[in-house]
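Q: What would this complex look like in 3D?
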Amino acid sequence: MTAPAARIHVAHTSAPAPHHYTTLGLDSRKVAIWAFIGSECMLFVSLISTYLIYKGRSVVGPFPHETWTDPTTGHVLKPILNIPVTSASTFVLLMSSLFMVLALAAVQNKEKPKHSRGDRILGNSKLWLWMTAIAGTTFLGFQAFEFTSFVHEGLTIRTNLFGSSFFTLTGFHGAHVTAGVLWLVTLLAIDYRRGLGSRDSLLVDIAALYWHFVDVIWIVIFTLVYLIK
Amino acid sequence: MDTHATNLPDSAEADAHAPGEVEHAHPTWSTYWKVALILTLITVAEVWLYYIPSFVAGRGFIPTLLVLSALKFTIVVMFYMHLKYDHRLFRVLFTGPLMIASLTLLALMFLFGHLYIKIM
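A: Here is my prediction, written as structure tokens for the whole assembly.
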């Protein structure tokens, strides 16, 4: 009695999962990721609002753009934000978005014939997924370097209002980038295991939408937090 | 009879070609490279402006940076997130909460005195 039951269970789990479509014929998963991105917009705007409200209201330093002399020790603390380093990390994240769209295009056009070496490079989904994951990890490395140097210079999440709002905002963003890198790694695992084809394009599209969203949020953070004094 | 249900695909094979999905062709890789170049140039311009003290001290610094940032945001959303080519519902799902969030941000800025309207 148990053998047929086990066979039924195996047959059920190995069958392709049914996909649900809305009455507009749109895939529910894509509708869900856009709704999720909309809600994430609200989360990040609340964090950005908090940062902007507290901007310039810290009583003690270090400050983002101004020097500060500690009255108790006499130490002069220079402006803490490192614009060249952050500009480099911003460039890396922008390029990661390019790699991500190339990964999506490679998956969508997987079955098309590749005539030249250029076609084969552009059609290599593993290459572009790797490039995106590496760029994301590099961005996280820049952020770890920035956080560590801030702590060494005396700015922690508890130091002042700037520290609290800055670490919360950029920390949340970093957590989202980390989740994105993990997502990319799972896509890479699928690609190595059975190969991503055009029928999987929606899986990659959803991951790409999340990744680009993380990028656009950084575009806003870079301007509002780092560049505007 | 539910006419929608009869037209909807439910197999994995149909996933890539959902019949009701209004989706235009995505841009080619050459468009993606051009978009990346434009985004890089805008970022370079932003950082360059940051290092011009006379411009930073002027009244045009913050509006210029905000416009450049909004431009980059729009380009990524339109071309990389394919919102320009996808179904209108996705635009609504994204811009609706974004508008609510942006208006809340503006209201908070007025409320906490970071923005104000000068009357005489």
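A: To summarize the key features: Helices of chain B lie at 3-7, 29-50, 53-57, 61-80, 88-111. Residues 88-111 of chain B form the longest helix (24 residues).
Q: Very helpful, thank you.
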